[in-house]
Design goal:
Number of helices of chain A: 14
Structural class of chain B: mainly alpha
Order of helices and strands of chain A: HEHEHEHEHEHEHEHEHEHEHHHEEH
Largest sheet of chain A: 7 strands, mixed
CATH class of the largest domain in chain A: Alpha Beta
CATH topology of chain B: ABC transporter involved in vitamin B12 uptake, BtuC
CATH architecture of the largest domain in chain A: 3-Layer(aba) Sandwich
Radius of gyration of chain B: 19 Å
Strand order of the largest sheet of chain A: 7-6-8-9-10-11-12
Strand content of chain B: under 5%
Shape of chain B: globular
CATH topology of the largest domain in chain A: Rossmann fold
Radius of gyration of chain A: 23 Å
Oligomer: heterodimer
Number of domains of chain B: 1
Distance between the termini of chain A: 92 Å
Number of domains of chain A: 2
Largest interface: A-B, 36 and 39 residues
Strand order of the largest sheet of chain B: 1-2
CATH class of chain B: Mainly Alpha
Number of strands of chain A: 12
Distance between the termini of chain B: 56 Å
Helix content of chain B: over 70%
Chain lengths: 406, 296
């Protein structure tokens, strides 16, 4: 019995020591839980996104940190909604993080942010695209990056403002085919594109959908080919996008412009198709670090910092949007004077920075659903195996589109 | 008219892919009476085998057949001997075991690759044969030729060679075959090895067509199960013709109706066949029950 008491006492003392030490650390660091997939099929992109946060934390720390504390990133691995909930519970309950940031996957963002609300923590999103996330009006959910409809709008904008002219046509003379993967992601983008194109007088010859797991997309490609559009627009993931490009080549389907939305701008597509296979392909995606420094001030320095820290070039442009998002979050929390969701939401109203403030060319102004209205994607074109930013023109910095007579 | 011909060719080539993927599944089911859920993952391993052969040895994916197919044959024999054979009298446990293998292979490849999509470069993959308005992609044509060769070859093997006859005997009645001096365990190992080797063959031939991911096996396997059940459980010709039926249905439904509906249409046909002929179009009546019947 005596022994038991002693053990209990020693245990209690040890716990107390840990608690005191923990308390001391908590005062010195501002902990941010980074919710992303670090294992599983999307680990590559989860890792890439979190590198943006890590670089963001470096930048913020060099600038005095958040609320005067040094920022520390704690990773929460989440490849699906259940894991998202578990990761948030662990980070909030065990590690006592001050705020959450994420997410490569929209489905994870949805579940994880609701769980974060139970702990009254801010869930700051930089990369999830689903429209519904901000439409929920969740008090703790803020999105600093572009979302699905921004991607749809950017694809319509480049067609109307630039490509139509390059093809020597008025919007009313232009024909497009809209292809999309069949989940809510591809469908919501295609619906928005159709609506906007029809409003501008562009003829939408057809809208096709397919599963991104499809084994064969010849039927899809042949339907588009027989319609004969000027512009073929595809929204999907990497496997189906690559299969469509391969099938287009096999079936000699070469519309004047092929425009991919969301994916198609990484080495995975280049490796599958070769330089000549992607030549001229346009892709709407996150602004890349190579964009002109005037459009995205600091983008060159960001690329340098990335190379120094990780010893290579970014594998995908997501990380720079994550980096910028992290900085805006730090700004918002510092303005609020605390990480309390209500205070941060209130502080958002005071943020009003013009486009071209951040490395991605983003500015910051939030609507009532806490969606940043000044975050826009950019468009690249593959030229000789390199992704060249060609739109908006300010971001292109002198890069020219190829494959047109004028 | 040219549309119709094009779609016919598309369906034929697609049928070749389905047939080839289903062949190994059906060989294993026909003889060992195991629904091998990990068959798609064996195809996936074959694909990565082609990638590795190119990456490490610099050889064209088509030449990697001589490495990948024997390697998967051995892997199949090992799986049968050390995982499935100890569970021989527990059909349900065998199914769970193959499901476990599915998860194991998928996650293993995931851990190694980190989920990046790989492509296997091959000059052959870019070749297109043009006949009038019809474009035939060479790698798909190779798959079609392979599936015909495999169907004829497997059929010849089981009908004209002693090991083939032994396998047939085991299929018909394990106990009598054992009494005749046939080593049933060896027959099973050979068959599972052959089924895995066929998956390896399919994987290598499909690798130049797709972007490789650890989950890609799953994209094929759903269709393969439909092909096998439709064509006939345990019948080589069933998998062969079943593949073409699904291929044609998919191509026609996808082009003339809506690509989004094509899977719904072939599953409707699948259910209709199951109701009318539960053993499949080429299957032996009652074959659908054999898997769970006491055999020893």
């Amino acid at each position: 019995m005596t022994i038991m008491t002693r053990r209990t006492l020693t245990g209690a003392l040890a716990s107390l020591t840990i608690l005191v030490a923990g308390g001391a650390t908590a005062q010195e660091t501002f902990k941010v839980g980074a919710i992303n997939p670090y294992s599983g099929p999307l680990a590559l992109y989860g890792e890439e996104t979190t590198r943006g946060y890590e670089l963001g934390a470096d930048a913020v720390n060099a600038d005095g940190g958040i609320l005067g504390k040094t920022v520390e990133i704690l990773r929460g691995n989440a490849g699906n909604p259940q894991e998202g909930i578990a990761a948030v519970e662990q980070l909030a309950g065990r590690d006592n993080v001050d705020a959450f940031i994420g997410t490569y996957l929209s489905s994870v963002a949805g579940a994880a942010s609701e769980t974060a609300l139970n702990y009254n923590k801010v869930y700051w999103d930089t990369n999830a695209l689903a429209t519904v996330l901000t439409e929920r009006g969740l008090p703790n959910f803020i999105r600093s990056g572009p979302y699905a409809l921004d991607f749809a709008d950017a694809s319509v904008e480049i067609v109307l403002n630039s490509l139509a002219g390059k093809l020597g046509k008025k919007p009313s003379e232009l024909t497009v085919w809209l292809e999309h993967e069949e989940s809510v992601y591809g469908t919501s983008i295609a619906e928005r594109q159709k609506e906007q194109f029809e409003e501008a007088g562009v003829t939408v010859l057809g809208v096709g959908s397919h599963s991104f797991k499809s084994i064969d997309l010849t039927d899809t490609v042949l339907r588009a080919k027989s319609a004969g559009p000027d512009i073929f627009i595809e929204t999907g993931y990497v496997p189906d996008g690559n299969l469509i490009l391969r099938t287009m080549r096999n079936q000699d389907f070469a519309p004047k412009v092929t425009l991919f939305v969301g994916t198609g701008d990484t080495g995975e597509t280049l490796e599958a198709m070769g330089n000549d296979g992607v030549e001229g392909l346009f892709v709407v995606s996150y602004p890349r670090p190579e964009i002109s420094d005037e459009y995205g001030p600091g983008s060159d320095a960001y690329l340098e910092a990335y190379r120094t820290k990780y010893g290579k070039d970014p594998i995908a442009p997501q990380s720079m949007a994550a980096f910028v998002g992290f900085k805006i979050m730090a700004d918002a929390i510092n303005r609020a004077g605390s990480a309390d969701p209500a205070a941060v939401a209130e502080a958002l109203k005071t943020i009003d920075t013009p486009l071209g403030t951040y490395e991605t060319g983003f500015g910051a102004q939030f609507d009532e659903n806490k969606q940043n209205l000044r975050a826009h994607p950019a468009v690249i074109q593959w030229q000789d195996g390199v992704q060249m930013t060609v739109y908006p023109e300010a971001a292109a910095g002198g890069n020219k589109m190829v494959g047109f007579d004028n | 008219m040219s549309d119709l011909l094009t779609i016919l060719v598309v369906g034929l080539l697609l049928g070749g892919i389905y047939g080839l993927v289903s062949m190994g599944l059906n060989v294993i089911f026909g003889v060992v009476r195991i629904v091998n859920f990990a068959q798609g993952e064996l195809v996936m391993l074959g694909m990565y085998g082609a990638y590795l052969s190119w990456h490490l040895l610099g050889i064209d994916p088509y030449f990697s057949l001589i490495i990948v197919v024997p390697a998967l044959f051995v892997l199949g024999m090992i799986l049968q001997r050390f995982i499935l054979q100890p569970l021989q009298n527990e059909p349900f446990m065998q199914i769970f075991a193959t499901f476990g293998l599915l998860m194991l292979f998928q996650n293993l490849v995931l851990a190694i690759t980190g989920g990046a999509g790989y492509s296997v470069p091959s000059d052959v993959a870019r070749q297109v044969i043009r006949l009038g308005d019809i474009n035939i992609s060479l790698p798909r044509l190779i798959v079609l030729i392979a599936v015909v060769a495999v169907a004829v070859g497997v059929n010849w093997f089981v009908n004209n060679t002693m090991p083939g006859k032994a396998v047939r005997a085991v299929t018909q009645d394990r106990r009598s075959a054992r009494l005749m001096g046939i080593n049933v365990e060896w027959a099973f190992m050979l068959t599972f090895g052959a089924g895995a080797a066929l998956a390896g063959l399919a994987g290598v031939l499909l690798a130049p067509i797709y972007t490789l991911s650890p989950q890609i096996g799953g994209n094929f396997i759903l269709a393969a199960f439909a092909v096998v059940v439709l064509g006939g459980l345990g019948s080589v010709w069933g998998a062969f013709f079943g593949g073409f039926i699904i291929g044609f249905v998919e191509a026609f439904a996808g082009y003339y109706f809506d690509p989004a509906l094509k899977h719904a249409i072939w599953f409707l046909i699948f259910i209709a066949v199951l109701i009318v002929r539960p053993g499949g179009l080429f299957g032996i009546a009652g074959a659908e029950e054999m898997g769970l019947r006491e055999q020893d």
